[in-house]
Amino acid sequence: MPIELTLPDVGEGIAEGEVVQWLVAEGARVKEDDPLVEILTDKANIEIPSPVTGTVTKFLAAPGQIVKVGAPLALIEPADVKTAGAGGAVLATPVVRKLAKDLGVDLGDVPGTGPGGRVIEEDVRRATGPKAPAGAPGATPSEERIPFRGKRRMIARKMVAAKTRVPHALLVDEADVSGLLSGRAKMREIGEREGVRITILPFIMKAVAGALLRHPALNASLDEDREEIVLKKTVDIGMAVDAGDGLVVPVVRNADAKSVIELAREIDRLSAAAREGTLAPGDQAGGTFTISSVGSIGGLFSYPVINVPEAAILAAHKIVTRPVVRDGEIVPRDMMYLSLSFDHRIVDGGEATRFLNEVVRRIEAAAT
């Protein structure tokens, strides 16, 4: 008698997920713990393994479908033997599966040359060809239609929730980062010895973490169901990462207790995992504040959208050398705009201003 494969409760407050792709075909023979289906949640991509050795007899959810925790995904007929024979699940690592997905390659059609017939990266790349992807239904020669699902749909849902539920307020200031850049040049020598890339972001994160300790109203969230403001006792700072196929926000834990070098190392690790699609669900959950560092891409100013249910988000923009007045004289300085979006239900303008003043002060003192 077949058993149901259901969407498990993976924790982190996740209530539903979207079926991204099935990793095996209907009728495939699989072993216990073989990955069967890739699910996208608002925290991360996860693979659901087979609970038993047997045959996948029927899919109950299609790619693009949103399913609730506990909802059935497929039917599996358990086998009487302990192992599945040939023709079972495709053997491939999550990184190779993501590469195949990005390149539009069906892993089931790729001969595996790795150990035990495992499909490796070179196999997937050999399977790619110059053929153009087929257009979506309804497309015309003058347009291309892309299915609105996956990570892009999850991002859209969060953005709509943020802008419809949260009364955003915006505060803008600027920081003189001339001294910080000098300090970073010295810090890079240490980073090179320890194999860590030193960017502007760890300095900004260090300044934000210190300011949050002095202004806990910004390190908070609103529990709308219980009508309570929740002041967080840890400083876990999310950082917006442009992962190529969408925005993700991995979280640096206990940022206030880390040095600039330690922050830089963790930022490197999380950024790489975000771009490779290997972030664990725990890497993206439970942030208390978010930083969007768009300056490396460009852009003088932005109005960032709050990462609900957090109280605020800070955007750091590109550094521009321009004339400013110092001690009655016009001198060239490296200046950077900072924009703070905050939830006006939790934070008033005065407290937001004091917080941003503290961030600026700490950034400008970073070289000392």
Short characterization:
The protein is an alpha+beta fold.
The assigned CATH architecture of the largest domain is 2-Layer Sandwich
Strand order in space, largest sheet: 9-18-17-16-12-15
Give the oligomeric state: single chain
Counting structural domains, the number is: 2
CATH homologous superfamily descriptor of the largest domain: Chloramphenicol acetyltransferase-like domain
State which percent range the strand residues make up: 25-35%
Spatial shape: elongated
- Rg, Cα atoms, Å: 24 Å
For the largest beta-sheet, the strand count, sense and barrel status come to: 6 strands, mixed
Number of helical regions: 7
Query: What is the structural class?
Result: alpha+beta
What distance lies between the first and last C-alpha atoms, to the nearest angstrom? 70 Å
**CATH fold-level assignment of the largest domain:** Chloramphenicol Acetyltransferase
Mean pLDDT: 86
The helix/strand series, from N terminus to C terminus, equals EEEEEEEEHHHEHHEEEEEEHEEEH
Write the layout of secondary structure elements.
Elements: E1 3-6, E2 16-22, E3 29-30, E4 35-40, E5 45-49, E6 54-59, E7 66-68, E8 72-78, H1 94-103, H2 121-127, H3 151-165, E9 168-176, H4 178-194, H5 201-214, E10 220-223, E11 228-231, E12 237-239, E13 241-242, E14 247-248, E15 251-252, H6 260-276, E16 289-293, E17 312-326, E18 329-343, H7 349-364
Parallel strand pairs: 12-16, 16-17
Antiparallel strand pairs: 1-8, 2-4, 2-7, 3-6, 4-5, 6-8, 9-18, 10-11, 12-15, 13-14, 17-18
Helix pairs in contact: 5-6, 5-7
